[in-house]
Structures are given as structure tokens and as C-alpha cells.
Amino acid sequence: MLMALIALIGVFVSLYLTLYKLGYIGTLACGTGGCETVQLSKWGDFLGVPVAGWGVVYYVVVLALAIAGVQERFAGSRGLTTALVIVTAGGLLFTAWLTYLELFVIHAICRWCMGSATMTVLLFALALWDWTSGEWRVASGE
Asked: What structural domains does the chain harbor?
């Protein structure tokens, strides 16, 4: 259940940033001004969709996989665990690219993005740990 909880928090963070990017929220609670700089940069969109919107999709997929993992019929499913590793590895690579852009191209740090990056690293680590352990213990909470 830990993965599901982290993914749910990620959904809310990404949704918050997406709503800002789409103009539904006036200012971001950031404190540094870096959040707006990052969100409004040319790197704030990917394939015509706000990057945070991609985050919403990513976290919803991870949440769905984690919730599926607690279902009795999927408990111990190696395929589901492998899917979680693949999805979270993709999220980790994308997050690494975005963090690089923040640090070396945009020259601004978004606290919300760093929180999301931390959650992505944790999700990958938990998925990898679960995959290498050979059991579905992380998502089921056992």
C-alpha cells in the first residue's frame, strides 16, 4: 500500500501543477518563484501537453498497478511487478531529464517538481525492491 499512497500524493501534486499551467490557479505556493519559472518555461510542455499532465497520467498508472497488486488474484504476480518496474523506470528517466533541465537549462528549481522527483525515485526503488524480492510485499503492505 505504500506505493499506492505515494502515487496518490503524486496525482494530487501533478494535478495541482497542471491546473496552474492551464490557468485555473493564479499563483503557485512555492516560496522561491522558481516554480512559476519552471512551469512557464518552454520546457513546461511536452508534445503539446503540460509536463505535469504527463505526471498525472504516470501517477494514475502507478496507482492502478499498485492497487491491482493488493487484489487476491494478482497477489504475487511477477508480470504486475515487472510492469511496475518498467513504468517507474520510465518515470525515473523522464524525471532525471526534467531535473537536468531545471538545473542546467532553466536555472530554476521548482519545489513541487523536486517533491515529485523524490516520489518517483521512491516508487522506482520500491518497485525494484519488490521485483528483486520475488514477492508482492510492497504493494500489499505485508
From this structure: 2-140 (1.20.1440.130)
